């Protein structure tokens, strides 16, 4: 692939870096000898929802997981290149991984609430990070997080019920609430709606829309329509390459690259 | 590049859409041609055929609209597919208008019958030929997604406009000189106007084709430059 | 045209006669033979179950018939004696309880921590593979070998008191630990990775992930494995014979270091007695042992059903 500069127009230097919440430069990810991500440079803004699309195995989820170092737990994974959060290299030895993951939260493909009460699901993060000094504090955090996750009205009378007793869509919103309870700066969502029905999906999409601006949101999705609906920036990955990254409207009405066009019009082989 | 969609039914629908648009285009081209012949050669039978044929054009428009709505609802077309489907929807609306103009010319040809004393009538077929070619090329450009051909169509609109201006002047002179011919001339003036509108519509189609093919709008200043020739 | 699409095209072009599902004689034969096989298997299975239940029922019935008259308050609270009229089981039961306490106290924490470390923290390499294989093998080692080990290490080398619950407990702990490790690892493995991801994803440290989420969720499974391991230890005789817990103990032990005997050894000793009165007492002791074992297994089942998470 031609060495394209996929990053948005910025002058090099500190001032430029500060504009973006996260930046990646020439990131390569290897699983053993296999290269899963090839030389990806991308900027993630605070104000935009960024969607990663591409066929299965294109590396979009892998790349997402490098952004909060979830790949660290995979023994054979190796990451090169530079990834910064607020200009700070997240793979530097001075970066505390646990702290990083509190700042860069994650929502997973399958809703995975803890088998604890709804209250404890939300309260867990703030508790381990010492964000609440009193029970009353914690109550406020739980309520505001559930409100922001659009779940409060549905669960306020049964906060002591188990999180796993909720419906799939509610569970996923609970997981989003759990992520935002620790006030992260970035939220990574790995195909958050792939296990949900269309109505539950619509609620999650509405939620993403409401959260936009407050958190930098990156969403990986198989569903192109969903990427088109929720994101302002779309990145198309193919075989580990970042083929095209741009304004969502442009990607879906007038993609620059032949491979992007073939994929989003359903001609991909 | 993979020309075909993974879902082949989608390809079938797109091809059917293109076929319907091409058929509509062919029919209005023919209608324009026949209407002009009806006018010049005084053949009322041809005029009747044009008027009846317009019903089929209207039906085709309705069919395309239905198909486009169905494709958008069921296939969720993207990128060039989306642009093409939307362009097809808009183009058939325009073609239907072109068909109406041809029908209008055919109707007027009956009014003028018997009074074929006016000289400018000889200019109209040449004008109509250019307009008809513009329609033909615009639809060719759509079928082949050819942006260059579409631009060429837009360039030719100025010829039709020039024809119109010259015919307008001549007819006005005629009317001043021979008030007896005023009603006839008025009809011919409307025929000229209809052909001029057909040229404009062909230009619109060409612009839509250009967008569908490239994803870019023809820049305004280029359009102005093209229009000036 | 792309590769998979052309493959589909080829597949649909292939000629294949539609299957004839109508009741042809060939089809009827196939059906009949299949039904015969089904019936035969069901009958064989039922026969096997009946056989197993019959022996169990026979054992229980003969024990109850022989031993139920031997059960009395005196029998339950008394200790061993040479007179079958006055013997009691309490000494052996208390010895068993003390031994089990030592076994549980040692094997449970060590087993659980081993399982946690191996599953959650240890890198996957040759060494952990060797450890894993060794633990699996250890669980299959005959119990008498553990008895010999206890004799060599605890008595001859460390000079701990003979016949004492502490030594019996230590020996049985060695035997039970691999069982707990294996049960623990399986329980930990069955905790879905998504829970670990969830905790890590909001910034829980590895130790927090394990102790806040993995261990609580794995605990019912670990407990079940532990109880079954303990039940096995409770019924164990051979290794305890090796370390001298077969003495005649007329007073119940009051500490871990006093000489004691345990239920199965007591049964073994009484079954050797010549006096006719001991037949009834042996059966009564077996009833007590079975009652204790059944209680433990019931607790294991209850734990599993009540706390098992559905994913």
TrEMBL record, chain B:
SUPFAM superfamilies per the UniProt record, alphabetical: PhoU-like
Transmembrane segments: none
Compartment(s) of residence: Cytoplasm
Gene3D superfamilies hit by this protein: Phosphate transport system protein phou homolog 2, domain 2
Keywords assigned: Cytoplasm, Phosphate transport, Transport
UniProt-listed Pfam families: PhoU
Top-level taxon: Bacteria
Domain PhoU: 22-108, 125-209
An example Gene Ontology CC term for this record: cytoplasm
A single BP term in Gene Ontology: intracellular phosphate ion homeostasis
Subunit structure: Homodimer.
PANTHER family: PHOSPHATE-SPECIFIC TRANSPORT SYSTEM ACCESSORY PROTEIN PHOU
Family in the record: Belongs to the PhoU family.
Function: Plays a role in the regulation of phosphate uptake.
Protein name per its UniProtKB record: Phosphate-specific transport system accessory protein PhoU
Automatic annotation (TrEMBL), chain C:
Residues annotated as transmembrane: 40-64, 97-118, 138-160, 166-188, 209-231, 284-303
SUPFAM superfamilies named in the record: MetI-like
GO biological process: phosphate ion transmembrane transport
Membrane topology note: Multi-pass membrane protein
Cellular component terms per the entry's GO annotation: plasma membrane
Record keywords: Cell membrane, Membrane, Transmembrane, Transmembrane helix, Transport
InterPro entries: DUF3333 (IPR024573), MetI-like (IPR000515), MetI-like_sf (IPR035906), Phosphate_PstA (IPR005672)
MF (Gene Ontology): phosphate transmembrane transporter activity
Record localization: Cell inner membrane; Cell membrane
Domain ABC transmembrane type-1: 93-300
Annotated Pfam families: BPD_transp_1, DUF3333
Signal peptide, first to last residue: none
Keyword Lyase: no
Family named by the database record: Belongs to the binding-protein-dependent transport system permease family. CysTW subfamily.
NCBIfam families the UniProt entry points to: 3a0107s02c
Listed name of the protein: Phosphate transport system permease protein PstA
Biological source species: Sphingobium subterraneum
């Amino acid at each position: 692939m031609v060495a394209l500069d996929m990053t948005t127009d910025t002058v090099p230097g500190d001032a430029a870096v500060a504009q973006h919440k996260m930046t990646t430069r020439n990131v390569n990810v290897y699983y053993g000898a296999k290269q899963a991500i090839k030389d990806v440079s991308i900027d993630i803004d605070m104000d935009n929802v960024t969607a990663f699309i591409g066929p299965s195995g294109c590396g979009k989820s892998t790349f997402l997981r490098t952004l909060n170092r979830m790949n660290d737990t995979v023994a054979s994974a190796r990451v090169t290149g530079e990834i910064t959060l607020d200009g700070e290299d997240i793979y530097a030895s001075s970066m505390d991984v646990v702290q990083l993951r509190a700042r860069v939260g994650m929502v997973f493909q399958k809703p995975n609430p803890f088998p604890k009460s709804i209250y404890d699901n939300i309260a867990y993060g703030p508790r381990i990070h010492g964000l609440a000094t009193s029970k009353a504090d914690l109550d406020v955090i739980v309520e505001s997080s559930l409100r922001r996750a659009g779940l409060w009205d549905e669960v306020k009378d049964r906060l002591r019920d188990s999180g796993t007793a909720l419906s799939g869509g509610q569970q996923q919103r609970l997981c989003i609430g759990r992520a935002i309870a620790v006030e992260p700066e970035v939220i990574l969502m790995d195909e958050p709606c792939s296990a949900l029905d269309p109505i539950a999906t619509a609620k999650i999409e509405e939620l993403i829309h409401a959260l936009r601006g407050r958190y930098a949101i990156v969403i990986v999705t198989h569903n192109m329509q969903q990427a088109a609906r929720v994101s302002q920036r779309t990145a198309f990955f193919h075989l580990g390459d970042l083929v095209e990254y741009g304004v969502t409207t442009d990607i879906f009405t007038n993609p620059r690259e032949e491979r992007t066009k073939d994929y989003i019009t359903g001609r991909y082989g | 590049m993979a020309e075909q969609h993974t879902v082949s039914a989608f390809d079938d629908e797109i091809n059917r859409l293109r076929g319907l648009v091409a058929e509509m285009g062919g029919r209005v081209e023919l209608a324009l041609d026949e209407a002009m012949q009806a006018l010049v050669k005084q053949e009322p039978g041809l005029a009747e055929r044009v008027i009846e044929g317009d019903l089929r054009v209207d039906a085709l428009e309705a069919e395309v609209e239905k198909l486009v709505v169905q494709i958008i609802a069921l296939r969720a077309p993207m990128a060039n597919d989306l642009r093409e489907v939307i362009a097809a929807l808009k183009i058939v609306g325009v073609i239907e208008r072109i068909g109406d103009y041809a029908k209008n010319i055919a109707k007027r040809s009956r009014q003028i019958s018997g009074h074929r004393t006016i000289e400018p009538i000889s200019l109209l077929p040449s004008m109509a030929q250019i307009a008809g070619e513009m329609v033909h090329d615009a639809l060719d450009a759509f079928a082949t997604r050819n942006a260059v051909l579409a631009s060429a169509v837009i360039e030719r609109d100025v010829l039709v406009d020039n024809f119109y201006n010259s015919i307008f002047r001549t007819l006005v002179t005629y009317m001043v000189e021979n008030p007896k011919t005023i009603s006839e001339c008025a009809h011919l003036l409307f025929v000229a106007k209809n052909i001029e509108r057909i040229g404009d519509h062909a230009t619109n189609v060409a612009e839509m084709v250009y967008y569908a093919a490239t994803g870019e709008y023809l820049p305004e200043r280029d359009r102005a430059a093209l229009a000036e020739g | 045209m792309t590769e998979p699409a052309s493959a589909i095209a080829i597949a649909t072009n292939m000629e294949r006669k539609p299957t004839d599902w109508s009741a042809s004689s060939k089809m009827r034969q196939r059906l009949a033979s299949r039904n015969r096989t089904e019936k035969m298997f069901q009958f064989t299975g039922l026969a096997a179950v009946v056989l197993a239940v019959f022996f169990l029922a026979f054992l229980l019935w003969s024990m109850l018939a022989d031993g139920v008259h031997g059960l009395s308050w005196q029998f339950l609270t008394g200790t061993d004696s040479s007179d079958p009229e006055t013997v009691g089981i309490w000494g052996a039961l208390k010895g068993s309880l003390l031994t089990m306490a030592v076994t549980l106290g040692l094997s449970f924490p060590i087993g659980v921590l081993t399982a946690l470390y191996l599953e959650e923290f240890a890198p996957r390499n040759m060494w952990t593979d060797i450890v894993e294989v060794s633990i699996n093998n250890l669980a299959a080692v005959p119990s008498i070998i553990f008895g010999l080990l206890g004799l060599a290490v605890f008595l001859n080398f460390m000079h701990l008191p003979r016949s004492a619950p502490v030594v019996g407990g230590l020996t049985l702990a060695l035997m039970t630990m691999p069982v707990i490790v294996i049960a623990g690892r399986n329980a930990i493995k069955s905790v879905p990775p998504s829970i670990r991801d969830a905790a890590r994803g909001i910034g829980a440290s590895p130790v927090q992930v394990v102790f806040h989420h993995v261990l609580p969720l794995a605990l019912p499974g670990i407990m079940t494995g532990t109880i079954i391991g303990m039940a096995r230890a409770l019924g164990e005789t051979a290794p305890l014979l090796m370390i001298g817990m077969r003495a005649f103990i007329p007073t119940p032990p009051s500490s871990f270091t006093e000489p004691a005997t345990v239920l199965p050894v007591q049964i073994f000793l009484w079954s050797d007695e010549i006096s006719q009165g001991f037949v009834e007492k042996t059966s009564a002791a077996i009833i007590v042992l079975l009652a204790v074992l059944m209680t433990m297994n019931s607790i294991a089942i209850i734990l599993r059903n009540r706390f098992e998470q559905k994913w």
